[in-house]
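User: Can you help me understand a structure? I only have the sequence.
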Amino acid sequence: MKVLVPATTTNLGAGFDVFGLALDLFNEVEFSFDTKETTIESTGKYASDLKDHNLFFEVFRFFERKTGYRVPPVRIKQTCNIPVSSGLGSSAAVIVAALHIANEGTGRNLSREDLMKLAVELEGHPDNVVPAFTGGLVVCYQNGSHLDFEKFEIDLSLTF
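Assistant: Let's start by predicting it. Here is the structure, written out as tokens:
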């Protein structure tokens, strides 16, 4: 199976911590559960910039604590096209990919909205992770455990 997760940008003018935009740049994560232990292989332009793969494991443990479902061993191959520590949501991309993998491995029991809430809890704010789930431009609002967002389609010829 494969998951493509876009880079994101936030802090768009007056939309600080509210606006998020998915970009046309993706990390590609292939995974399968035909293994006895979890392994992660990283390739791509920014693979050498990764310090370690602990974020995948951290997300899996978080998912297990929050849901009570055990994530089975998984073989992961990620192609890292999003620059690390660049403000383009590379951590959010890993969080979103890992939550999709965990949900798939445990029987797809959580909705996209449930996964988004977990991602926001991990990331601390919605403006990077929500557009990584939805694509496009989003306006996000979080009040406690309540997450609300509105997605806006944007003209794909828009560049900046």
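Now, to help you interpret it: The helical segments are 54-67, 90-105, 112-123, 126-134. The mean pLDDT is 92. Let me know which part you'd like to focus on.
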